[in-house]
Write a structure and sequence with these properties.
single chain, alpha+beta, 9-stranded antiparallel sheet, two-stranded antiparallel ribbon, 6 helices, globular
Length: about 260
């Protein structure tokens, strides 16, 4: 989902990873394959997703902290609530392909999903990353909590953080690119009893997200003790037709049905 999913500079990953991103990909045991994700995804772990260039698809990284720990027998089991690649947003156009088998890890601190928001309090986290035929990123994250109340609390916290995402994104742009570049526009594209969807159109800042003009899409659905977060990025440089958010409500319903 910015980035997933983040920059587009040659001889780097589709998303250039920072140390926190290394933690996430290395801890999941798919660092080589997720070099693409690091560049193609907009989320981040224990820290952040990073950015990269569409011309490079592999990288490795070493853990820099213990924020993500190996799964243990006491960890909640994996949940099978993922959408198929074809069911992801813009699936028919983007032709998403998984980058690796999904991984489940126990977690011990917040997982960053973009520059604005993170998921806190999860006991286990399952990640599935994708890359499109246009080398853009998507990701599904399933966070399992010890009870329904904890999952609901994390979802509400995500809503609160996203309420301030436009202000926070513009502040980041002003700091990194100059005040004239502060063009971020964040909108809620769908909200129902299943969850909430957002889009962020902006000139991205390298780091968690890719650099350059883009639209980032984020979806959050909480059902029982599980919080699902789906995200994908559209880069202005991609030849794909722009995604219409009119289907976002249906996507939220689809994710909830999978979790149900």
């Amino acid at each position: 989902m910015p980035g997933r999913f983040s920059t587009r500079r040659s001889d780097r990953n589709i998303r250039k990873r920072n140390n926190a991103r290394h933690v996430r990909t290395a801890a999941l045991g798919v660092a080589g394959v997720l070099g693409v994700l690091a560049a193609v995804s907009a989320c981040g772990g224990s820290g952040q997703h990073a950015a990269g260039s569409p011309s490079s698809v592999a990288a490795t990284g070493a853990p820099s902290s213990g924020a993500v720990s190996p799964a243990s027998p006491a960890s909640p089991p994996a949940v099978s609530g993922r959408l198929s690649a074809s069911e992801l947003p813009a699936g028919a156009v983007e032709q998403w392909q998984p980058l690796a088998a999904p991984h489940v890890q126990a977690v011990s601190s917040a997982i960053q999903v973009n520059e604005c928001a993170s998921v806190q309090g999860a006991a286990a986290w399952q990640q599935q990353a994708y890359v499109s035929t246009y080398r853009t990123p998507a990701e599904q994250d399933l966070f399992t909590f010890h009870d329904n109340a904890a999952a609901q609390h994390a979802y509400q916290a995500l809503l609160t953080q996203m309420d301030g995402c436009q202000t926070q994104s513009r502040a980041l742009q002003t700091k990194s690119l100059g005040a004239a570049a502060a063009d971020a526009q964040v909108a809620t594209t769908a909200q129902n009893g299943q969850g909430t969807a957002w889009s962020r159109r902006w000139t991205g800042v390298e780091g968690i997200s890719a650099g350059g003009p883009q639209t980032d899409h984020l979806y959050a659905v909480q059902q029982g003790s599980t919080l699902a977060v789906v995200h994908f990025d559209e880069w202005a440089s991609s030849p794909a037709a722009p995604y219409s958010t009119r289907a976002d409500g249906d996507l939220l319903t689809s994710v909830a049905r999978k979790l149900g």
